[in-house]
Amino acid sequence: MSELVTGEAVALELRPARLPSRALAVLLDLVAAMAVYVAVTIVLVTSTASLDEAAQTALSIATFVLVLVGAPIAVETLSHGRSLGKMACGLRVVRDDGGPIRFRHALVRGLIGVIEILMTFGVVACIASFVSARGRRLGDVFAGTLVVRERVPVARTGFVPPPPPWLAGRFSGLDLSAVPDGLWLAVRQYLTRMQQLDPQVGWSMAERLASDLAECTGAPVPQGVPPAAYLAAVVQERQARESRRAFGSGSASSPDPAGEGPPTVYGAPGAYGPPAADVPPVVAPGAASESSGGRRPVEVPEVEEVPEGDRPGTGFVPPA
């Protein structure tokens, strides 16, 4: 991987293209360019047979320059660094800061490429690529460009390897409340990528992370436990606690496990509000409630009927 720094001071990790893939891309570009050059030459020879020898020579030189020099420059400029061969090999030409190339970059690369690729049959370009740390030829050095790989094999990430079976449940009593989120993230990133690290570098990194984790938990790393296995076991314990907290069965609103309790009727009193046990029922006068459970019913007082003649006048006469 090559670290490029953009104009905004952002570090980009790109994988430079090496000599075999670049040579194959150049070979494909040359085959395509030569096929076009031969086709255009045949058309020009048949159409300019009546011209003199000097004019035919000038046309052939112009065709060579346009097809073998101008066409690659135009293709790289319009496609932002992807010629036919580079597209087939998954390569792209970028600037030193990781940005797309412009016409001046493609022009410098194309003009110097005539010397180091066409005139020397690629010998100068191969030597320059071997000497350069990032595989750049002279055209890339003078133009300030770099050929990188676009199709990078995706590594398997995001999978935390399980700890050894003899460590299962050993850290169930560990206090993990003081461990910061940044340390958990660093431990998880290490566990997902430890197979890609150098053994010595991975071991020292695991020791440092295990020491920081033990300092936060207040319990030292057990003797004889590798640091990577300790980290994996603690991460598994944390995941198990989060799973129990999220999907635990001990809930106050869960139904009766024996299934003997009465079902909850949505919309009934007490379903969403306080229980209806304290609300006394309203019964008719003299009626006894058998289901009141010993509570005194609220009696509605009787209204004494007044004779029609003794009723006071209201001032309104009913219609006839």
From TrEMBL:
User: Which InterPro entries did the record assign?
Assistant: RDD
GO terms under cellular component: membrane
UniProt superkingdom? Bacteria
Q: Does the keyword Heme apply?
A: no
Q: Which Pfam families match?
A: RDD
Q: Which residues cross the membrane?
A: 23-45, 57-78, 111-131
PANTHER family referenced in this protein's UniProt entry, alphabetically: SLR0254 PROTEIN
Listed name of the protein: Putative RDD family membrane protein YckC
Organism of origin is Streptomyces violarus
Q: What is the lineage of its organism?
A: Bacteria, Bacillati, Actinomycetota, Actinomycetes, Kitasatosporales
